[in-house]
Design brief:
Keywords: Membrane, Transmembrane, Transmembrane helix. InterPro entries: Zn_peptidase_2. The chain crosses the membrane at residues 108-140, 177-194. The chain has helices spanning 2-27, 36-42, 66-70, 74-91, 95-119, 124-135, 140-156, 161-175, 177-195; strands at 47-49, 54-56, 61-64. The protein is mainly α. It has one domain (2-195). The radius of gyration is 18 Å and the shape is globular. Bound molecules: zinc ion (ZN). Zinc ion binds at residues 82, 86, 143, 146. Zinc ion (ZN) is lined by residues 82, 86, 143, 146.
C-alpha cells in the first residue's frame, strides 16, 4: 500500500516537473543573434546532430538536436552552453566532470546487464536496474557546475542580463530531472519488487 502511494507521489512530481519545464522553456523563447551550434563550435568543441542533447566523453563530442543546433532562442543557446561546459570542464580535468564521465560508462553497462536479466526473467534485474538509476545521482554535482558555467559562457557572448535570468531558471528546471528521474525510477522499481 505504502509503495502505491510512494509511486503515485513520484509520478505526480514528475508530471509537475514536466509542466514547469515547458513553462520555463516558453519564457526562454527570446531570439539571440547566434545559434546553439555556433556557441559550441566557437570554443573548438566538435559538435554533431543527435537525437538528444548531451556531451559524449567517449567521442569528445557535443551532440545537439537539430532544433537546438540551429536554434537561436535563449533556450537553445543555453542548452548548447550547458553541453559545451561539460566538454570544457572535462578537458580542464575538473573532478566532477571526470566522475560524471566514468559514471556514464558504468551506467550503460548496468542498464545493459539489467535489461538482459529482465529479458531472462531473472529477479536480480530489479536490483541491477535500481543501481543503474541510483548511480545517476552521482552526476548531480557536475550538472550543477555545468549549468553554472553555461551562464558564464552566455555572459562571455554578451547575452543581456534579462535573458541570462531566463536561461538560469530554465537550466535550473532541467537540473531537477537529475534527481527526479532516478527517484521516480527507484520508486517504480520498488513497487515492481513488492508486486513480484
Ligand atoms: Zn548536463
Amino acid at each position: 500500500m505504502l509503495f502505491y502511494l510512494w509511486a503515485g507521489l513520484a509520478l505526480g512530481l514528475l508530471a509537475h516537473h514536466t509542466h514547469r519545464r515547458k513553462a520555463l522553456e516558453r519564457e526562454a523563447g527570446v531570439e539571440l543573434p547566434f545559434s546553439g551550434g555556433y556557441l559550441v563550435r566557437k570554443r573548438g568543441i566538435p559538435v554533431r546532430a543527435g537525437r538528444s542533447d548531451g556531451f559524449s566523453p567517449l567521442y569528445g563530442t557535443v551532440f545537439l538536436r537539430r532544433g537546438v543546433m540551429e536554434g537561436r532562442t535563449v533556450r537553445d543557446v543555453a542548452l548548447a552552453a550547458h553541453e559545451a561546459a561539460h566538454a570544457l570542464r572535462l578537458a580542464r580535468g575538473e573532478r566532477t566532470a571526470w566522475l560524471a564521465s566514468r559514471v556514464m560508462v558504468v551506467r550503460w553497462m548496468l542498464f545493459g546487464s539489467g535489461l538482459t536479466l529482465a529479458f531472462l526473467l531473472n529477479p536480480a534485474a530489479i536490483g541491477v536496474l535500481a543501481l543503474a538509476y541510483g548511480a545517476g545521482l552521482l552526476v548531480i554535482p557536475e550538472e550543477r557546475e555545468a549549468s553554472r558555467e553555461a551562464i558564464l559562457i552566455l555572459r562571455e557572448e554578451g547575452v543581456g542580463e534579462a535573458e541570462i535570468e531566463g536561461a538560469r531558471r530554465m537550466l535550473e528546471g532541467y537540473g531537477d530531472s537529475y534527481w527526479l528521474v532516478p527517484i521516480v525510477a527507484l520508486a517504480l522499481l520498488g513497487w515492481q519488487a513488492v508486486a513480484a
